[in-house]
Amino acid sequence: MPLRRIARLVAKRATMYLTNDRFELQRPPATSREIGDVPKFMRHIVESGIETYLNRITAYASLAGDLQGIDLGDVVEFGGSVPPLTRLLSYRSWNVPPNYPHVDLHDLHAYADQSCDTVVLDNILEHVEHPEKAVAESARVLRPGGRLIAMVPFLVPVHAAPDDFNRWTPKGFEVLLRRAFATVTVGAWGNRLALQLSIELGVPSTWPTFDHACQRFGNAQAWQMLRTTEPEWPIVLWAIAQR
After folding, report:
1. Which residues have a Cβ under 8 Å from the Cβ of 145 and sit 6 or more positions away?
2. Exposed/middle/buried for residue 135 (C-beta within 10 Å: 0-12, 13-18, 19+)
3. Are 79 and 122 in contact (CB under 8 A)?
4. What domains are defined for the chain?
5. Using only C-alpha atoms, what is the Rg of the chain?
6. Which residue in 19, 85, 29, 57 sits closest to 227, CA to CA?
7. Which pLDDT score is estimated for 136?
8. Which pLDDT value is given to residue 79?
9. Are strands 142-153 and 116-122 parallel, antiparallel or unpaired?
10. Quick one: how far is CA 196 from the chain centroid?
11. What pLDDT, in 10s, does the model give residues 164-211?
């Protein structure tokens, strides 16, 4: 039996939420909910090519909505990632230092206390051995009232870069951040349709994109999948924490 067919059968068995080989997201269970007023940001992100990966689109859209009209000041994005958020948020400057091991989140000794207004950790904390130290260091370099913007995966396979140490539930992520920040708001996105697609594609060798979703389920279903989250099946979490 071809490997792709085996993966599809496993996905069906794992989710147990299929009707005629399609998820019934047009009639979601009572525990699912529509994510708030972010569709305009989702459409902008997809149609402008800011981000194509399914696991990031809703998170970026939600952050753009929550931070709309806020000047984030001097931003430092640790982790060396390509910063799509620079095209969605307002700020004075945006600095992306070299990645680990050149810059180690456990000890940001090169950065003075209260030296920036915003720290961005975009899918970085799962790769940090002692995330509580990284969060404390992020808080230390922030000026009073400064913000931490963070994203982490949950229902995502192990992907070493160079290592993969951690996963958090939404509540666990909030607890981690509250150790160093006064206010924390956590969001989450995920559903069994998106999880099925990830299994079929063979994540992490192939990460699902919006085009993958359209090809597999159709355009309308793909958009609805982005807008629907099932709290019991979070794939990605994001947070805004403020000192």
Report:
1. 242, 243
2. buried
3. yes
4. 3-21+29-242 (3.40.50)
5. 18
6. 57
7. 98
8. 86
9. parallel
10. 18
11. 999 999 999 999 999 999 999 999 999 999 999 999 999 988 999 999
